[in-house]
Amino acid sequence: MADLAGKVVVVTAAAQGIGKASALAFAKAGATVYATDINEVLLAELGKTPGIKTRKVDVLNDAAVTSAFAEIGTVDVLFNCAGFVHSGSILEMKDADLDFAFNLNVHAMIRTIRAVLPGMLERGDGSIINMASLASSTKGVPNRFVYGLTKAAVIGLTKSIAADYVGKGIRCNAICPGTVESPSLQDRMHAQGDYDAARAAFIARQPMGRLGTPEEIADLAVYLAGATYTSGQAYNIDGGWSI
Ligand code: NAD
């Protein structure tokens, strides 16, 4: 595991799921972690872990992002984990869903990156990790039109930033998970009516025959935080879905 001692890591959407597992993994690797989310109740629990400080930050809110990052100061690693899954095809899409998804899944990353990049450039060092998905430009997934579109934009955003700053000490990579056990996945399975059938269908699309765990994705985030010879890449971690 990477040694992140002395590094400051900010994670968005850190109160549950992959973000929470990543905050815990970054702390275990020795970093000082700022776990941010809008769910203050869950954050308070996470804040009891040594090495983890918590902040309420709504990544949809420009002013909140700017003031939180100004308060945090130096950031060595930014993990943009916030995102929302809309279900449905293009014909079922509401314009409001598209606007919301672009705001949360894409624009929020632009907000946080703008807040940390000048400091990273000043120090000539920084790792930015963006949460995409296998459902993106990597793979067309049925009933994920808005989601796949916005997560494809995350990969484009990642590569653009990587290209602009590769010679200036900044690495920017994306993580593309398959289906991962998380509270929002539980919600999606319950929302389908027949929970057992929904769960079986999610598992069936993973060739390894099981869902991923948030901890498995967190391990990749920790690796990317410390990895010094990779940038602009979209890392599939998907139980074999993309083979
Ligand atoms: P989750 O969806 O269960 O939790 C999301 C967290 O985001 C919650 O704690 C919520 O409070 C927080 N959040 C929501 N709106 C916010 C806002 N405006 N500002 C700050 N925080 C906000 O977690 P998950 O399923 O692990 O998903 C995390 C990320 O991983 C998302 O970007 C998702 O698209 C991506 N992803 C998940 C899966 C999966 O199968 N779970 C697969 C691929 C990619």
TrEMBL record:
The keyword NAD applies. It holds the Pfam family adh_short_C2. It comes from the Bacteria. Keywords: NAD, Oxidoreductase. InterPro entries: NAD(P)-bd_dom_sf, SDR_DHRS6-like, SDR_fam. The keyword Transmembrane helix does not apply. Belongs to the short-chain dehydrogenases/reductases (SDR) family. This is SDR family oxidoreductase. It comes from Mesorhizobium shangrilense.
